[in-house]
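Here is this case:
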Amino acid sequence: MKSPLNEPMPDHTISKTFTGHDFNAGQINVAGVFKAISGIIKKASKPKITKADYNETQNFLTRVKSEINLDFLKKYGMDEEQIDRFLLYANKTRMLAKNYRKDFQNDVVEYEIKVAFGEYRKLHKLDSWEK
């Protein structure tokens, strides 16, 4: 009983000779074709992701400061200079300007900033002033 099996186990499937005719064989999945075409169109219409130059990065960071609510950073005692330093860190680690400068979505950028802040907070040992 403890020795390994010498013969392979049967796979318990029904032979093709006993199954009925597959009426879907050779048919096109129309929904799948439409989904593939729409995916190609979306991919082609999205802007290409390229590396941001200095001016594009600065414009992106200015836009982040004006459109994203960064009050949670001030809660940790960060002044404007520290917030700028953090935004540069977030841009470097999460590649924010590269990925989102052409397709700026507030909620996505805000989420990425909060993820970067979680990492930044561990590295720089920031504590909340409001306890």
